[in-house]
Amino acid sequence: MRILVLKFGGTSVGSLERIHNASKRVLEKIREGYKVVVVSSAMAGETDRLINLARQIDAMPSERELDMLVSTGEQQAVALFAITLQKLGVPAVSLCGWQVPIVSDEVHTKARIKKIGVQRLKNLLAEGYTPVVAGFQGVTESWEITTLGRGGSDLSAVALAYALGGDCEIYTDVEGVFTTDPRIVPNARKIPVISYEEMLEMASLGAKVMQARSIEFAMKYGVRIHVRSSFSDKEGTWIVPEEEVMEKSVVRAITLERNESRITIVRVPDRPGIAYQVFKALGDAHIVVDMIVQNVSHQGYTDLSFTVNKSDAPKAEQIVRKVAQSIGAQEVVRDDRIAKVSVVGIGMRSSYGTAGKVFEVLYRLGINIMAISTSEIKISCLIEDKYGELAVRELHSAFIEEGEEVKVLNEP
Ligand code: ADP
Ligand code: ASP
Ligand code: MG
To answer: What pLDDT band is residue 246 in, cutting at 50, 70 and 90?
Structure first.
């Protein structure tokens, strides 16, 4: 049995016509002889709409209730998808996460998958049915509905492909993974093959075409992913192990993250245990912290800044205010108007001069850098939000369009 998991993102199921188009793709794959499992996101905009409704009532709604609410978006989409497939003559059954089951931990709004039951799916496939699984959602061992973090249908698809021993195709509204967001830089290039490592960095740094956690999962379990457009038949991007990537660019892609906030604790006493108290409290609240900057101290005091996802920012601010008070800091300031631009590429490991060139591009644009972070395959700079797109365009032009870098071919 050749199994294929086909995941359709929000835009690809954004209207009945688009669900029909997606269903025809499923039908083609079935005709080619595959057993298909469909994973669907909510219709475009639905998740945001539901979150906004809840936030109109309370800026920090209960996360359990948020999961109850947003999971209905995918439930609607899979039912409409299954009805469309049936109309096309394909026996189909829609399933929520709990009906598979996709079992997760209890961390609402960003739960992790712990177990996947495949018997029901296998039985359905053996009986000739096409299961249509609601992406983004799981169920805890005590039957609470959870969601897997924004963009989490990608993770549902990758995890099901692994569990069923099948391949994974991600259908989205662009033709694959590009050298940067093609909506910001129209002449961005499609990347035919990319390593898990680079894709993971890109996804973690704001390229929302794939959810970061789904790539982490794919890398850990060796699931090969083909990202492609649901509106064209063109070959998309293959995400594979690094050994299979022949061409290693110094800078493969530029990313922009606009979804973070910076929180600064002003005039913190500079003594052991302060950072521990702040970040332990945030960790206990399941808040992921990104960049951390602590300035050199003056007269025993320093400023401590860090960034978190915008959706976690009100909660993080509340927690940090309490800690700040207990440690005698002066004040806590939150800034939502920041952006992070990054250059990513595995070739950076063995090249030099990349950081200097990034800083030069930003300097020539008159953009001030508020924080820098690096790993062996990326350089990120925190800047003012209003310069985000400009910086991406100029970095793309300097590193990718000019294409002056030496490419290393992994061949004899
Ligand atoms: P879906 O609803 O199919 O999951 P998403 O909106 O989550 O789609 O992701 C696709 C979007 O990701 C594209 O429309 C594009 O604007 C954006 N994107 C950002 N960076 C990149 C990139 N490097 N390559 C391709 N798309 C990107
Ligand atoms: N509908 C969810 C979201 O908007 C999950 C997904 O699209 O992957 O985040
Ligand atoms: Mg997505």
So the answer is: confident
